[in-house]
# Entry
Amino acid sequence: MTDIEQGTALAPKWDAAGLVTAVATDHRTGELLMLAHMNADALAATMQTGEAHFWSRSRGRLWKKGETSGHVLRVVEMRIDCDQDALWLKVDAAGPACHTGERSCFYRRIEGGALVRD
Amino acid sequence: MTDIEQGTALAPKWDAAGLVTAVATDHRTGELLMLAHMNADALAATMQTGEAHFWSRSRGRLWKKGETSGHVLRVVEMRIDCDQDALWLKVDAAGPACHTGERSCFYRRIEGGALVRD
# Structure
C-alpha cells in the first residue's frame, strides 16, 4: 500500500505521453459510452467546467467532447483508480457519445470470434 | 465509416506494444471494476476460457485475473469499440477486483481537487 493508493491527494500517474485513460459511463444506466485520454490540461478543463475534455492523440490537441456536435458529456461524478492512471467519469450525455452516431462506442458484441451488432 | 467500424470481423487494433485496453464492469450493477490491458494471447485465453486474462505490463507476462487470489472475473459479455482498440468486459466477479482488497479499483471520488473515499 502506498500514498498513491491510500492517500487523499490527487496525483495522476501520467504515462510517457503525459496521458491517463478516461472511461465514461452513463450515470443512469452504467453503460460504457467511450474510452479516451486526458492530459493535465484536459483534466483541469474537465474539473473547471464540469464537461468532459480529452486529449486527442490523432489530432494532437485538447478537445471538448461535443464541441462541434453539441453532444457534450456533463460530469456527474469523477473517480480515480488505485494507482491513479485511470479516471472514471459518470456522465449525463447530451447525445450519442460515438462519432458514428451510436449512443455508445461499444455497439458490437463479440460472439464466437466475430462481431454482432446488438 | 470503415470496415473496422461497421464490419463483423474482429480485428483488434493493437498499439505499438501489441495491446488494447480492457475495461471490466460488474454485469449486474454496471460498476467499473478495473482497467487493464490485453495482448492477442490474453484475448484468446479470455475467449477460450470465459475468464478474464490480461497482459501485465509491469511483470511482462500473461496473467489470469485471480490466478493467486481466486478472485476470477467470469466474462458474461464482451464488446469492442468503434475503432477496435478497446474492449468492454461485463463480468461476474468472484471477489474484490482490486489488489488493495476493494471491490473496485475506483474506490476514490475526486472532489474539489482531492480524493474522497466513498
Observations:
- Helices of chain B lie at 3-6, 40-49.
- The radius of gyration of chain B is 15 Å.
- The interface with chain A takes residues 1, 5-10, 21, 23, 25, 29-32, 34-35, 47, 77-82, 86-88, 98-100, 102, 105-110, 113-117 of chain B (CB under 8 Å).
